């Protein structure tokens, strides 16, 4: 009997072990399927896998001398790069919403204060300032490598460090693993009709793009060039053959990982029409309950629309403006009426602090000057016509983006949590659905990061792209300004007089995006009048980037990864006529300035005709444009203490203007 019992127990034990073994093997198999590139055992037994420790994310302590390592030190090493979609930073970002600066006089830290400035003051080539530039339209499941760099401007070559020089070879872009779907090369709408520059009225809304000039595609030859991983391929075809080719009208397919050209192009003339239509057609939300500020704005709107005509002004060239009479009246009423409430919630570095140097400086300088302003700021939100959301899109990226993760979910969630917090604490957002709130953001990702919870807000964006959701009549185009010195933002202002500008056209920059390689392919070393380069490196006895800007008639402002480029403002800063080659880009202060009176717009597909387009502008017309560049310059300058009609006031006016014309009767 005893033997039988022992036998039965042994048999049952074996069966139990067999079942457990099968279950264990099944678990291992499932884990293997779920984590084919990870560590199965660590995934089973580590509860911290694929999470970021919030304590280290926002560190502003001493950093490494290596700018790359100092940025990477802001993230913990516990992140499993194969599971970036599981990052749980967002649950901890609410700690930034508990700050209160309402009773603290805002004093922005100087450059010498490393603790406050170090997350912005990264000493690298400004073209590469945003090292996480790799996507804008990727799904969270895409598996792609990073394209290093940004679509921004070059420093004067003397500012490059040895580390920044080696950080990105301008002839090399990292290859990216293809996403499942590819977009075929789009067809571009033909340019607007050409009007002779001799007879062109200063207020004309027609772009300076000759329709009669022979068209050329940047097609197959440029496509082959972009596919070369090692260097740009100089095409063997004769330039005259390319220019005479009028049978192709499409932009080429682009290298994997480089954002493709838009399938629809809105010339500057069409954008003018869209702006005019927006004032009557934009579906602004009616307030849920009435407020005294609504009636004030309705009165202001009527006064602007019925502003007396000013045929001439001693201080301004009225041809620089779409409607000088309306602008002058609107600006005066802004000074008399506007009150802005700034939310005190939110902690640094994402909130209440922005960069004062580099290509994202516009958002930092505006924040600094507005917070210090006693004329426009009110502490009584019921009196406010506008509510400012004081975050920095650059700080958001530096603080929360995990390098090479290709995922910005936590950044979007951070802003969403902020909106949730202020809507729960205050009633003001709910009254208008956020239409009387505004943000000022210069990072390329800002349109995508704010298009959900902040979609109704007035968004002042450097990346002002019609195809990326920019709304005429609501959004404002923010000037992207490259500030070299936070202590002296006007350093090196000005340039040679028109008579001493011997160079017809100049461009230099990294090969970001699909357009710049095409520009260089057609014009680099092809014509002595066209100084078109890649990155300029410091060589003794040779001209620097700034010297070229100061010595050229026309400065080429070619888009990079996105439509915006600090070269537009730089050209004005150095008194060089801007030539904007960036389809669908809405230039700064578009609702106010008549850009065609002082700048040239060239469609991307007309790059082969670039010199002909510039030469078709008469000397008389050029001199007038260059003089107007000098006159409009006042609207693009940062001052440590704001000056009337300067860039600070113009940004505020753009937001004010859109707020006024969105106002509807309840």
From TrEMBL:
Keywords of this entry: Glycosyltransferase, Golgi apparatus, Membrane, Signal-anchor, Transferase, Transmembrane, Transmembrane helix
GO cellular component: Golgi membrane
Annotated transmembrane regions: 16-33
Pfam families tied to this protein: Exostosin_GT47
GO molecular function, one term: glycosyltransferase activity
Chain residue ranges for the region called Disordered: 58-77
Residue ranges, compositional bias (Low complexity): 63-73
InterPro entries hit by this protein: Exostosin (IPR004263), Exostosin_GT47 (IPR040911)
Compartments (UniProt record): Golgi apparatus membrane
Chief location category: Golgi
Domain Exostosin GT47: 335-615
Membrane topology label: Single-pass type II membrane protein
Similarity comment: family membership: Belongs to the glycosyltransferase 47 family.
PANTHER family in the record: EXOSTOSIN FAMILY PROTEIN (PTHR11062:SF108), EXOSTOSIN HEPARAN SULFATE GLYCOSYLTRANSFERASE -RELATED (PTHR11062)
Protein name: Exostosin family protein
Organism: Forsythia ovata
Organism lineage: Eukaryota, Viridiplantae, Streptophyta, Embryophyta, Tracheophyta
